[in-house]
Amino acid sequence: MPNEEIEFSRIKEVESTNLARDDIRNEVIETKKAVEKDNNLLADKVHQNLLENNIKSFDIVGAIGAGKTALLEKIAEKLTPKYRILVICGDITTRVDADRIGKHNVDTIQINTGRECALNAYHVHQIIKNKDLKNYDIIFIENVGNLICPSEFVLGTDKRITVVSITEGEWVIEKHPMLFKMSDIAVINKIDLKERLGTNVEKMIADAKNFNPEIEVITTSAKTGENIDKLMELLGF
Amino acid sequence: MKEALTLIEENIVTPKKIELSNIQELMGTFFAKLKNRVDNYIGDYPTFIEPVYLEDNVKIGDDVLLGPNVYIGANSEIADYVEISNTIIYENVKIGENFKLENCIVAKNSSFNFTDLNVKNSLLMGVANLKTELEIYGL
Fold it and tell me: Using the 8-state DSSP alphabet, how is residue B37 labeled?
């Protein structure tokens, strides 16, 4: 590949307009716009398909170690006696999370995103169109663990849940406004460690509400089960 | 798994006699039982949507998306920017850059030495150095 092509390929990859040379700036901008538009169209298609099949859907985002999988395990325990559940797990590599959740009588599909740092609507659409949706009542999508990239892509679910833990520090919400602006529920997990860590949880709640007055904020402990029932209520169960 | 692959392969040996419903049904049955095996490839970090089964010595290029429902036979090579779903690729196959294959079968020892192809519901076979030389049949 000639050097120029390599450079252009790299620029498209990082999708950063200010890295583009003047002569390809327009093309980079048009590409970015097209990608965003296509993702939104596909997300709408996914959502419509899920609604037509009476499936409730949630995507869960959060940093690695915040407790997304642990919370999903607790939720699955409570829901599987009544509902048929599919969990789509996103990770750079491995199927560790899918194996954990799969022990709770739910179907799992792992997406290994390789070098991509978030799931997008195309990934979800590829799964949805190959599954018999009549076999499911609820779909959970656990995104790749980080608080930045997932804010670029909506996935077409009913609600987005962002999970942070108090071990990430009281500034974690303040530092990630985009994700909280586009989330419906903010879960502040590992609340059982509050006394020991002395994290200012009230500030975290206030930050989330400040970015998004409509957001529901809940503190939980996946370890002790604290407020899991309240979280279930917020999910509509 | 080997038996199902052989059965499908027998159906593609004389492509003009393909019974469409038969091969689609065979593929559906094969994919329904397909396991995941993606820890043995040679290459960078592609995207995998389960299930994807890679035989030994499969080479995968950059920015590749495989799955769901993809089987790739031994010693096959997948170039950069390729996307494949619901497809069986037999052994010793070479897939060119920026190929997009959906619901396809690629016969063994096929080699496609050109770039940019987007096909669905097709059987591909033979050696092609240009797009016009491609041997392709509807499934």
Answer: B
Decide: B107 and B137 in contact? Cβ < 8 Å: no
Whether residues B36 and A114 touch (CB distance < 8 A) is answered with no
State how far the Cα of A121 lies from the Cα of A85, in Å rounded to an integer.
19
The pLDDT tens digits for A147-160 are 999 998 999 999 99
Nearest CA in chain A to B97: A1
Q: Any idea which residue has 């969990």 for tokens?
A: A87
User: Residue A90: which CATH number?
Assistant: 3.40.50.300
Domain boundaries, chain B: 2-138
CA distance, residue B138 to nearest chain A CA (Å): 20
Residues of chain A positioned with their CB less than 8 A from the CB of B36 = 95, 110
Report how many domains make up chain A.
1
Q: Is the dihedral angle over the CA atoms A139, B39, B63, B68 positive or is it negative?
A: negative
- Find the helix or strand (DSSP H, E) in which B95 lies: strand B94-95
| Chain A CA closest to residue B43 | A114
Chain B interface disruption, residue of A9, A35, A124, A126, most B CBs within 10 A: A126
CATH of domain B2-138: 2.160.10.10
With bands split at pLDDT 50, 70 and 90, how would you rate the model's confidence at A1? Answer: very low
Which chain A residues have a beta carbon less than 8 Å from that of B50? Answer: 95, 109-111
- Quote the minimal CA–CA distance from B69 to chain A in Å: 9
Report chain B (139 residues): mean pLDDT per 10 consecutive residues.
87 64 87 95 94 98 96 98 97 97 96 97 96 92
CB contact under 8 A, A116 and B50: no
- Asked, for residue A19, whether it belongs to a domain, the answer is no
Domain assignment of residue A140, yes or no: yes
The ipTM assigned to this model is 0.88
